[in-house]
Design brief:
The protein is of the alpha/beta class and 415 residues long. It has 18 helices and 14 strands. Strands 3-4-2-1-5-6-7-8 form an eight-stranded mixed beta sheet, with helices on both faces. Strands 11-10-9-12-13-14 form a six-stranded parallel beta sheet, with helices on both faces. It is globular.
Length: 415
């Protein structure tokens, strides 16, 4: 079987070849590609866009990579890729990129789309409970230009959601991982055939196991905090309520310290949301409690998760976040907002806690319950570790995906 993946980010090894930063690599794609190339009867290629002036082709570790210019508005690029690689099926990871639209409209090959975040729905939740007057108060001129500003960020979501709708209306098959993404995608196109396939999680998260003896007590971890919809502002409010009861409480936030940028580029890209977060830190007097980890590799992320007391997924909307899957595989106690696909990933009171994202009082309550009871923390850990290591077993998932491809091809051949 010859499989062509279209993706929205450069894989790390290709970025290194081009001398670029890899940025936010699609971790599950990287993990899946390593697994799928172990099959002798499978050939894999990936196509993506980057800041290059002409199409580049690389063969690395059993995968052929096609790198297209950013403004790839010519069908010639795709026709060349199809002629060169001759795929049996095309798998598009994500729906918001414009570069897929030409391909979808000019090929009769079977196409399946992998659902990530459904931006058509995400854009409604972008502000995460922050009122208009607050946004105006903390918005500066550069917010009009950075992609994570209050208004520019949501406008970016709206624009990309239009590409998403066009793509979903032009395909027959989608692959997702939650009730929420199935309902949301079929709300755009009721005729879609939906396949369920959880994300493949990278090996370092299977190599770590949380334990009470290993954890740093009264510590919390949040994996993303760039935009309002990730909900960090409500986490700040929750820890402010807990700091008197737990003077040693700490919140670890993955990524570089966006609240105190040191490089000119970071300062210029600082958004109104970051200024709002700085205001909350001062208001709640929690500066000493918030710690940014710096950029973490998969190995470092897994070690960090395994060392904390609680992982929090506080977003105003999510599909089925990898960070929650990673945390449950490690077995760290989790608290997640009751939104999107989170409720498919964590059973309330049995595997962790779910709460309404804009109720920091409830978040603080659930944090306190886990802090106070090692027995409860251990129960959550044991339950999730057993269940989700099986759910995300790489051998099961790769066979699930290959069977999906076979079914799509079989279905297309009947038509």
């Amino acid at each position: 079987m010859r499989i062509l993946w279209t993706i929205n980010s450069l894989m790390p090894k290709v970025a290194a070849k081009l001398g670029f930063e890899s940025g936010h690599a699609i971790s599950w794609v990287d993990a899946m590609s390593i697994k799928i190339t172990q099959f002798d009867n499978v050939s894999l290629a990936m196509a993506t866009i980057a800041n290059v002036n002409k199409m580049k082709i690389y063969d690395l570790d059993g995968v052929r990579y096609y790198i297209l210019p950013m403004n790839c508005d010519k069908i010639d690029y795709w026709l060349k890729i199809i002629s060169d690689f001759q795929p049996d099926i095309i798998h598009a990871y994500g729906t918001e990129g414009k570069h897929n639209i030409l391909l979808f409209n000019h090929t009769d090959l079977p196409i399946i789309v992998s659902l990530q975040g459904i931006l058509t729905e995400y854009q409604h939740h972008y502000y995460a409970g922050i009122d208009f007057s607050t946004m105006l108060r903390f918005t500066a001129l550069q917010d009009l230009f950075v992609p994570t500003g209050f208004f520019s960020g949501r406008n970016s979501f709206i624009k990309r959601s239009k590409n998403e709708q066009r793509q979903l209306l032009n395909v027959k098959y989608v692959e997702g991982r939650s009730t929420w993404d199935r309902v949301s995608s079929m709300n755009i196109n009721p005729n879609l055939k939906y396949y369920f396939c959880p994300r493949m999680i990278r090996e370092p998260f299977f190599n770590q196991e949380w334990s009470i003896d290993r954890m740093e007590r009264h510590t919390l971890f949040v994996s993303q905090a760039v935009t309002p919809l990730k909900g960090l502002h409500f986490v700040f409010e929750a820890i402010a309520k807990l700091k008197k009861k737990y003077p040693d409480i700490k919140l670890y936030v993955a990524g570089y310290d966006r609240l105190h940028p040191t490089k000119l580029r970071q300062k210029l890209s600082s958004s109104g949301y970051m200024r709002f977060l700085k205001y909350l830190i001062k208001k709640f007097d929690i500066d000493d409690l918030v710690h940014f980890t710096g950029t973490l590799s998969a190995e470092e992320m897994a070690i960090k998760m395994a060392s904390v007391n609680v992982v929090i997924i506080p977003s105003s909307i999510e599909n089925a976040p990898n960070s929650l899957a990673e945390a449950t595989i490690i077995g760290v106690p989790c608290i997640a907002s009751f939104v999107g696909g989170n409720m498919d990933m964590l059973e309330h009171n049995t595997e962790g806690f779910l709460y309404c994202y804009n109720e920091p009082n409830m978040l603080a309550e659930y944090i306190s319950r886990i802090f106070e009871s090692d027995e409860l923390a251990q129960k959550f850990s044991t339950t999730t570790k057993v269940k989700y290591r099986k759910k995300h077993d790489p051998d099961i998932l790769i066979n699930t995906l290959l069977n999906i491809y076979k079914d799509v091809i079989k279905h297309e051949n009947k038509q």
